Amino acid sequence: MDMKYAKIQILLLCLIVFGCSSNIPIIKAYPRPAKYKLYVSSAPPEIRAKFVASLSLYYQGKLDSAAISFVSLIAQDPNYWGSYYYLGLINKDIGLYQLAIGRFREAAKLPVTEPALRSNIYLALGECWESTGQFADAKMHYRAAININPESASARGSYNRVSQLIAQK
């Protein structure tokens, strides 16, 4: 009980000494998707460790470092879709939608054996098109995601939302 009290005192002392400042940088961390293990197991064995390290950077919110790492992976193995996909996610996250669309298209050209993962590529394409106001293109890609993985609640919800937006125009 005394140890817990001591930790609280140290924390309070640090707050008093250093102050609560808005200058403390905030790093946005991204939650790992439920399919995280599928992404990892889909990576070729020769780049799997580096892919896991790149994913770790991405999920810690270190997007610059993650982008550099994924570009390096693409140079090492240009036939692995996952590096293009995550580089596309980084581009989408920072608002570079056209660049992200290109990355997702590259990922879609490559073999992806797991339907849920292939569906996520088309879902991400739909999200980019929706963000740019191209609702018809978004709807088409959401439909493709549903066709690949009919159980995708995200794709179905996005498809319905965009369909309503189109109907309101």
Identify the overall geometry: globular
What's the number of extended β-strand segments? Answer: 0
The SSE order reads: HHHHHHHHH
Query: Which class best fits the helix and strand makeup?
Result: mainly alpha
Oligomer: single chain
Strand content: under 5%
CA(first)-CA(last) distance: 63 Å
Pick out the low-confidence regions: none
Largest β sheet strand count, sense and barrel closure: none
**Helical region count?**
9
Average pLDDT, all residues: 87
Give the fraction of residues assigned to helices: over 70%
Q: How large is the radius of gyration?
A: 20 Å
What does this structure look like?
The protein has 169 residues and is an all-alpha fold. Helices cover 73% and strands 0% of the residues. It contains nine helices and no strands. Helix 6 runs antiparallel to helix 7 (115-131). It starts with a helix and ends with a helix. The relative contact order is 0.08. The mean pLDDT is 87.
What can be said about this structure in brief?
With 169 residues, the protein is mainly alpha-helical. Helices cover 73% and strands 0% of the residues.
